[in-house]
């Protein structure tokens, strides 16, 4: 009986959120990390498709991301505001710069699982590369000119020196029940 009780407690702990006060479970963290790191690996290997169908040149010195509970907490704070995924919904640039934090926002009112919603957001952000271009088959160097093309979300995911990510979500009645997804990034 005691062994069964211990197993139940262990199961409950493993199914619970990993970060304090979080709704992001270990399974969702794994999805966030594997999706980001798979895209980053494709880019590092020169397998990312750019606008026009060519492949981007391989990236150098790209780190594998790890999950960060502090970034998740700041992402949750923003998601809880339910401001939408437009420019007005972003954190002030001064705050992001002072904390060396990058930020992506996504929202959807499509009924789907949280995992599917997170994947849809990450696919949308990464899809900016093939939709808008910005880098070439011989140069993956990012400039402000590239940013103006509309690949800012992709850049947050692909930035070579980024080492950590934390994401959060919130259903927002004030936004017709859209679910806000926010991911924060930090570089070395």
TrEMBL record:
Domain (SCP): residue spans on this chain: 27-187
Highest taxon of source: Eukaryota
Keywords, sorted A to Z: Signal
Pfam families membership: CAP
GO cellular component assignments: extracellular region
Gene3D superfamilies in the record: CAP
Signal peptide coordinates: 1-16
CDD domains named in the record: CAP_euk
The name this protein goes by in its record: SCP domain-containing protein
Gene source species: Panagrolaimus davidi
